[in-house]
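Action item from last meeting closed. Structure (344 res):
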């Protein structure tokens, strides 16, 4: 890599870091166009006018504008009203249109609200919009416009998310009341128990880059869900220069695991918390990417542990605040014995 390429890459990383750490304000609308420039997305602006309106209505109608953010197949239309003598623009609507004619991409939250519109009207800064837009851009970049039947990452993402929800509810019998899609107006599937967000499954952008610490290339296959057999498979098709949208499991709540359960994620990701021989995930541990093997053979045990830990063990701890009492009440021993029968 030449010095100029190294400089450009370092500069892009610095800009991305600053944008994530301290994003600009939503208003005025020019801040969104600046974001597009940083993400290398095309954009254009048009005035919206209904020729059937009378002259009095036209005056206000001519103040309505549309900012269109465009990629290869991605178009995100943002409709807004320009306020005279003001930097404030009233954002009216945000609509995603795909040139592939795929119209089932879900950008609504658990309340049925448009997450992009919420990003730009309920948030004062562009943090969430920036995060969501980067995911959309990756899907757009990775899609092959010459072969959208098999390489449309918008369809792949949506089919995978739909498959996960069906798998969790219909196959693993997890209550639909604990599963929330696009919670907090970001792309995710969130598991919530008793009003507390426990963990999320989030899309992550994978490119053909080496892990700096381990000096190894990250390779994650596409996930394929078989609805009839209710099982997952890793795609065998080669990914061009290993670009992919993968899915990462992120814990949002403090949960401890026993030594056997910690093997689900690899013992190198855990540290002993010196309490009842329990282990906690290291903050510096490797990301937990979902694979077909993990979903088919391990996720159900992970969910059982999380559910038991949050509803029984943690409650016992709060009541007694005494590890010996937890051991005496038999709950931990009972569950430890059950875990011993699990095969993974």
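Sequence:
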């Amino acid at each position: 890599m030449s010095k100029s390429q190294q400089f450009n890459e370092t500069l892009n990383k610095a800009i991305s870091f600053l944008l994530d750490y301290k994003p600009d304000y939503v208003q005025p609308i020019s801040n969104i166009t600046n974001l597009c420039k940083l993400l290398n997305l095309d954009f254009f602006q048009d005035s919206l006018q209904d020729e059937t309106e009378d002259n009095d209505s036209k005056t206000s109608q001519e103040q309505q504008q549309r900012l269109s953010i465009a990629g290869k197949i991605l178009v995100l239309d943002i409709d807004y009203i320009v306020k005279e003598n003001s930097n404030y623009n009233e954002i009216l609507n945000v609509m995603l249109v795909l040139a592939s004619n795929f119209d089932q991409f879900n950008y609504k939250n658990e309340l049925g609200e448009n997450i992009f519109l919420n990003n730009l009207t309920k948030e004062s800064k562009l943090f969430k919009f920036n995060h969501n837009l980067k995911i959309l851009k990756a899907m757009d970049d990775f899609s092959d416009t010459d072969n959208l039947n098999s390489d449309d990452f918008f369809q792949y993402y949506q089919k995978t998310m739909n498959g996960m929800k069906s798998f969790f509810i219909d196959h693993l019998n997890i209550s639909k009341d604990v599963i929330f899609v696009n919670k907090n107006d970001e792309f995710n599937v969130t598991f919530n128990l008793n009003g507390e967000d426990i963990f999320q499954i989030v899309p992550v952008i994978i490119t053909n880059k080496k892990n700096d610490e381990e000096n190894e290339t990250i390779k994650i296959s596409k996930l394929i869900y078989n609805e009839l057999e209710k099982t997952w498979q890793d795609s065998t098709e080669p990914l061009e220069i290993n670009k992919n949208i993968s899915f990462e499991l992120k814990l949002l709540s403090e949960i401890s695991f026993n030594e056997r359960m910690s093997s689900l994620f690899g013992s190198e990701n855990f540290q002993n918390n010196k309490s009842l021989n329990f282990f906690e995930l290291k903050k510096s541990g490797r990301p937990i990417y979902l694979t077909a093997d993990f979903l088919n053979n391990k996720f159900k045990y992970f969910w059982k542990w999380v559910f038991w830990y949050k509803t029984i063990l943690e409650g016992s701890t709060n009541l007694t605040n005494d590890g010996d009492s937890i051991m005496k009440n038999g709950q931990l021993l009972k569950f430890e014995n059950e875990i011993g029968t699990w095969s993974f």
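Note appended to the action item: The longest strand covers residues 196-206.
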